[in-house]
Amino acid sequence: MLFNRTALTATRAFSTSARRETKVAVLGAGGGIGQPLSLLLKSDPLVSSLSLYDIRGAPGVAADVSHVDTASEVKGYAADQLDQALEGVKVVVIPAGVPRKPGMTRDDLFNTNASIVRDLAASVARVAPEAHILVISNPVNSTVPIVAETLKKAGVFDPRRVFGVTTLDVVRSARFVGEVTGKDPKETAITVVGGHSGPTIVPLLSQNKNAQGVKGEVYGKVVHRIQYGGDEVVKAKDGAGSATLSMAYAGAKFTNSLLRGLNGEKGVVTPTFVRSPLYEDQGIDFFSSNVELGPNGVEKIHPIGEITAEEQKLLEACLPELKKNIEKGKAFVNKA
Ligand code: NAD
Ligand code: LMR
């Protein structure tokens, strides 16, 4: 289920004025992810107002989406209207930037996307300094530190309010493990830790009782498919981009989780890439693990818990790569 019903029950207890404040902006709303994500957010009862921005096409997307028969208001903003788009927003979702083509790594997108994300974050810092920022643009392992460093420079960084959206890895894991076990994906929810690229994606199958029996060759294949699921889509799209529809689903799902937490629902826990103390002693200060979301954003960062020797090996392969990606993002903002 994309939108959790608990949220509806929970928010009924809140006043209408409190609900009216859940204004969400999508930056990059005209793109492959931005369009279906905007549609899904229009369907989320926890979103009261939707602000759609892109350097091209957002007013058209907004006019289209605004006809959907849900209560939220929708407004589109043109290239020179970023500040207006950000006024009063509580949550900003960023899928702006270029996607991969076959043969590229996510890191190959750095040169184009780093400055796009930095500039958007600087505007959020100025116009909506208390907004929660959800970063989809790749490479997530670097773009999240870029957002954090940009907010720090502006004096408004709050680690509870910056998130890398790694939900697509979680969605894929549930689906792929569901396939190999013959279970409904609802019963094969997998915690995915680390980051969002190849070896930095570490799925912890041992922590789900339905996945514990996946061993040997099947285990190796399913882990590889989770780590390289993005490449599967890039290859199939054959030059036309990367995952957009499943990403929009994942982005809407994570936004709904955050909104439920912000609205006071208890026990909303999901993996996300945040400023984290878990591996700070190894110089890695951003990491994805299960995070409890609450009224201020990040409420509690869960440790990764017990893992197998195989998972420990995956984690060891993840950490040095993740460290490099994080340092690259930070250096980009601090070079000047
Ligand atoms: P796309 O090219 O279809 O859309 C990107 C949109 O961003 C375009 O409409 C473009 O006009 C807009 N844009 C560019 N610069 C902008 C700016 N300065 N301000 C506002 N908008 C701007 O690409 P897509 O398929 O939607 O992918 C977008 C990004 O999401 C890529 O970097 C991709 O790698 C990433 N992605 C991440 C995940 C994830 O799991 N986190 C999954 C899929 C894709
Ligand atoms: C994904 O995992 O699908 C995205 O990060 C897009 C990509 O480049 O693979």
TrEMBL record:
A biological process term (GO) from this entry: malate metabolic process
Entry binding sites for NAD(+): G28, A29, G30, G31, G32, I33, G34, D54, N113, I136, S137, N138, M247
Domain Lactate/malate dehydrogenase N-terminal as annotated: residue spans: 22-164
SUPFAM superfamilies in UniProt: LDH C-terminal domain-like, NAD(P)-binding Rossmann-fold domains
Catalytic activity line of the entry: (S)-malate + NAD(+) = oxaloacetate + NADH + H(+)
EC main group: oxidoreductase
PANTHER family tied to this protein: MALATE AND LACTATE DEHYDROGENASE, MALATE DEHYDROGENASE, MITOCHONDRIAL
Binding site for substrate: R100, R106, N138, R172
Name of the molecule in the record: Malate dehydrogenase
Active-site residues per Swiss-Prot or TrEMBL entry: H196 (proton acceptor)
Gene Ontology terms for molecular function: L-malate dehydrogenase (NAD+) activity
TM stretches of this protein: none
Record-annotated Lactate/malate dehydrogenase C-terminal domain positions: 166-333
Record-stated family: Belongs to the LDH/MDH superfamily. MDH type 1 family.
Signal sequence coordinates: none
EC code: 1.1.1.37
Entry keywords, A to Z: NAD, Oxidoreductase, Tricarboxylic acid cycle
Domain of life: Eukaryota
GO annotation, cellular component aspect: mitochondrion
Subunit structure: Homodimer.
